[in-house]
């Protein structure tokens, strides 16, 4: 059974609050503190179910109701430069429509699919902020002509709704480097490489968070990241386990992550109860 939002907030309130977030380019975001840890991040836009498709407003609202601290949302761009919440470039898998999202305007898109199923990022961000959820933003690649509007739209919506400070960026492509402000970007290599590629060159560790599968981290990695104030977030999702039982193997990996003392979990809702038990036992 899922914890209701009140119980969830009590668990989070008992955790130690994070340090002040250092903004990009050395600025200190003194007004924005990281939420209580550990982070509990809903994969693919919220709590996904047959009633609430991935990256939909329904999935987001269910994550708010259940008390997650963040949602991970996938972003793409329409032909006329609107940022929308969608994982695949083609809508076939999620909606049954053989459309390329970057080949239609927002108006055309929403003639074919309801706005709550493929919402604009601005609406999604506004609702996230109202529900006190932070965002982990998975930035997908877009055609080069759309890049300026895409990156600007992401940054503008995050800033407009008070989510820029503390936003967690994952994904690929040149749009990643165009998002400025007090955000943090994923680091998916061992600590030894972080030390040689970032710290040794004078990079600011406050611009990063470590993000990978549980068994990609060692105790030495965790200790190194912790010395430099870099949060470690693990990702455990059903699709990670194509050849084994995803629930059993995912729970094993989550138990390992908890033994390392990680700072957060990005999960499919199938692991929610197990993660909640881990978080509760840490109190």
TrEMBL record:
Pfam families, alphabetized: GDPD
Leader peptide range in chain numbering: 1-29
InterPro entries linked to this entry: GP_PDE_dom, PLC-like_Pdiesterase_TIM-brl, TAT_signal
Entry keyword set: Signal
Gene3D superfamilies named among the record's database cross-references: Phosphatidylinositol (PI) phosphodiesterase
Keyword Signal: yes
Top-level taxonomic group: Bacteria
Domain GP-PDE span(s) in chain numbering: 38-283
UniProt keyword annotation of Signal present: yes
Protein name per UniProt: Glycerophosphodiester phosphodiesterase family protein
Organism: Novosphingobium mangrovi (ex Huang et al. 2023)
């Amino acid at each position: 059974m899922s914890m209701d939002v009140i119980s969830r907030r009590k668990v989070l309130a008992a955790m130690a609050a994070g340090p002040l977030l250092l903004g990009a380019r050395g600025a200190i975001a003194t007004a924005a503190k990281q939420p209580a840890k550990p982070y509990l991040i809903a994969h693919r836009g919220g709590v996904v179910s047959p009633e609430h498709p991935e990256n939909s407003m329904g999935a987001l609202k269910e994550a708010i109701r259940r008390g997650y601290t963040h949602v991970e949302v996938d972003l793409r761009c329409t032909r006329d430069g609107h940022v929308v919440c969608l994982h695949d470039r083609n809508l076939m898998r999620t909606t049954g429509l053989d459309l390329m999202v970057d080949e239609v305007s927002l108006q055309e898109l929403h003639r074919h699919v309801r706005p709550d199923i493929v919402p604009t990022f601005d609406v999604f961000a506004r609702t996230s902020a109202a529900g006190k959820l932070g965002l982990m933003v998975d930035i997908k690649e877009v055609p080069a002509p759309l890049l300026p509007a895409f990156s600007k739209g992401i940054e503008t919506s995050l800033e407009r709704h008070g989510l820029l400070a503390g936003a967690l960026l994952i994904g690929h492509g040149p749009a990643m480097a165009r998002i400025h402000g007090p955000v943090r970007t994923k680091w998916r290599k061992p600590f030894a490489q972080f030390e040689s590629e970032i710290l040794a060159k004078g990079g600011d560790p406050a611009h990063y968070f470590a993000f990978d599968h549980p068994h990609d981290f060692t105790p030495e990695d965790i200790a190194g990241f912790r010395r430099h104030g870099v949060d470690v977030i693990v990702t455990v999702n059903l699709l990670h386990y194509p050849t084994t039982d995803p629930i059993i193997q995912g729970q094993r990996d989550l138990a390992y992550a908890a033994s390392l003392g990680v700072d957060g979990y990005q999960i499919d809702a199938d692991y929610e109860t197990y993660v909640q038990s881990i978080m509760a036992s840490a109190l």
